[in-house]
Amino acid sequence: MKKGIFISIVLLFHLGVCFAQWNTDRILTIGRNALYFEDYVLSIQYFNQVIKIKPFLAEPYMYRSIAKIQLGDYEGAEIDGTEAITRNPFLPQAFYARGFTRMKLGKYHEAAEDFTKALEFSPNALHLLISRIDAYERTENYEAAVRDIDAYMKINPRNTGLWYEKGRIYLSMKDTVEAENAFNQLINADSTSFAGWSARGLLKLQRKNFNGAYEDYSTAIRNNSNYFGDYINRGIINVEQKRFMEALADYDQAVKLEPNSVMAYFNRAILRSNLGDNNNALSDFVQVLKMDSSNMEARYSKALLEMKLRNYRSAIADYNIILNKHPYFLPAYWGIADAYDAMNNVREAFKNRQIAQDLEKNKDNFREKIRRDLDAKNMIAEDIPKGITKSRTDVFNRYATQNINETGYDSKYASEKRGAVQNKFVDVVNEKNFVLTYYSKTDALRQTNLYHPEINAYNRKKRLSANIKITCDEIALTNEMIDKHFQTINEISSRINDKTTDADIYFHRALEFALVQDFESAIDDLNKAIALRSDFMLAYFTRANIRYKYIDYMRNSLRESGSGIIEQKEIYVAFENEKKFDVELVMRDLDKVNDLQPDFSFSYYNKANILCTQQDFRTAIYNYTKAIEIDRDFAEAYFNRGLTYLFTGEDSKGLSDLSKAGELGIYQAYNLIQRFK
């Protein structure tokens, strides 16, 4: 249904200027509807259309800024907010939106200025005041933050929760006396609320006043606290005071309240392990690693449990995962040796024990490498064998929590293009090369111009079995489709003989060969087509792509050959040296395409992709830029150039390009923006 609406709106643009006012109002309304229903990516496309028709309007920039905020594209949102304010400096919502993005970007002083400007228009807007309080706190202007809290409380004295905020800020000022006074005021104002008791409990826990903290957390829980951190923190106190079964009950409740809490599972796993409940402890460690596979302390603890439970192969697998990240972690080698001993594999046990002994003997030589290798967050270090069996209370105390939201985002939409798409994990992979083919997936969101006069003119000649398209998203053929193309190859071959001088027939068969993955035959036919017609631009482009596909196929085959690491590396280096000339032929064909058709942006784009694989990033960026100069809406070029900039350390340019790519329909960019920031 949405696709049909989108197409009809696009068609409206061709009806003439007389309907422009109605069109833009209507499109803006639809965009706002999409924004309201959290269809952020689609809403941006509507706002794009309004901006193209009436770039002087402020509202579409403001709404597009809000949509980008929801997608986590704060750089792009800030730019749009500025554009909206430039066009209309009397929009408090635009100042608020830009202030919000600046908070996310760490520009706290500028954010405070935006909130102040918005408050000039809406002096009683409490959401603006609370936002400025946050900005002042981030700039460590605590006195101003406290003044704003006092002003807020005058406007809305019933908001007793502000005592909590005031207490937090006094804690930031290291004024624990005033902080406790604020929390006491909160408790006095509303003793039935758990927030004050919870906050004061943390203050007492930090002072190691375990008895007082226990009483406050217990009161918070009696007051129906549904915050899982209160149970975790009381569990920590119970462990400290050796009330292990009470601690276990607290962790159970924390898991029940927040099934995605790594802290709750991890603390419970350690406690269960110390209590000898190994199977349940193992289950908890497995759950921790499902949620956070990088948690090496959990991985190591799981490996030790696997050894106790005689699951030696699982233990070895865990130790190897640790060694992949921390190759100088001696206990993993000893653990692997012990596991192989238990399996009566003397040779592997001896090999790993020898590695451990060599590393131990040369520890001083490796110390600097070990230091660089440490992952302090996961507590994997060379001295863990001595510290791993000490009291676990230190470990528990590292995981004390207060109002930390670590809940994973679970979209309520089935479509991966709806809702907050920045939370959907994507691999950091370049968009693929563009190719000519009969089939392609359609993506109505992407703005890239897939039309070119040369392709259109060739399709009008009707020399092929179907029209060709330009795409970077090919589809896999079904068995029926493959059979059809083999039949077409046979039919074309029956019409070709030694006297054939028709370049188009060879081009036709080359496309068919390519579809059934016969790259060598396709290249042979393209060679013949080009020999017969030296200005056959589409044939040069296709030959370049098929030749590069063939190189990539061969390279991938080597990676999957199963050779040993050293042998594989030698074969791989030899292959790369051998294929350098073939890659040069690919680049020559793409250069020829641009000689014949200087405005064929896809050739520059493909060259840039290939140059990235050769680590010639400067020239790659130049070619992506050339593609963008030809097509200002070339989404894939922005996306790939953005990744290239990030790889070369030019983060601001990279994030800007990813923002543009997201704006032009590549929703995966928003997840990468979140991660690279």
SSE inventory with pairings:
Blueprint: H1 2-12, H2 20-36, H3 40-53, H4 59-70, H5 74-87, H6 92-104, H7 108-121, H8 126-138, H9 142-155, H10 162-172, H11 176-189, H12 194-206, H13 210-222, H14 228-240, H15 244-257, H16 262-274, H17 278-291, H18 296-308, H19 312-325, H20 330-342, H21 346-361, H22 363-373, H23 384-387, H24 393-398, E1 435-437, H25 453-460, E2 469-471, H26 479-495, H27 503-515, H28 519-532, H29 537-559, H30 565-596, H31 601-613, H32 617-630, H33 635-647, H34 651-663, H35 668-676
Antiparallel strand pairs: 1-2
Helix pairs in contact: 2-3, 2-4, 3-4, 4-5, 4-6, 5-6, 6-7, 7-8, 8-9, 9-10, 10-11, 11-12, 12-13, 13-14, 14-15, 14-16, 15-16, 16-17, 17-18, 18-19, 19-20, 20-21, 26-27, 27-28, 28-29, 29-30, 30-31, 31-32, 32-33, 33-34, 34-35
Can you describe what's shown?
The chain has 677 residues and is an all-alpha fold. The chain has a domain at 435-676: Tetratricopeptide repeat domain (Serine Threonine Protein Phosphatase 5, Tetratricopeptide repeat). It is built from 35 helices and two strands. It has helices at 2-12, 20-36, 40-53, 59-70, 74-87, 92-104, 108-121, 126-138, 142-155, 162-172, 176-189, 194-206, 210-222, 228-240, 244-257, 262-274, 278-291, 296-308, 312-325, 330-342, 346-361, 363-373, 384-387, 393-398, 453-460, 479-495, 503-515, 519-532, 537-559, 565-596, 601-613, 617-630, 635-647, 651-663, 668-676; strands at residues 435-437, 469-471. Helix 2 packs parallel to helix 4 and helix 11 runs antiparallel to helix 12 (194-206). The radius of gyration is 32 Å and the shape is flat. Mean pLDDT is 82; it is low at 1-22, 374-418 and 560-566.
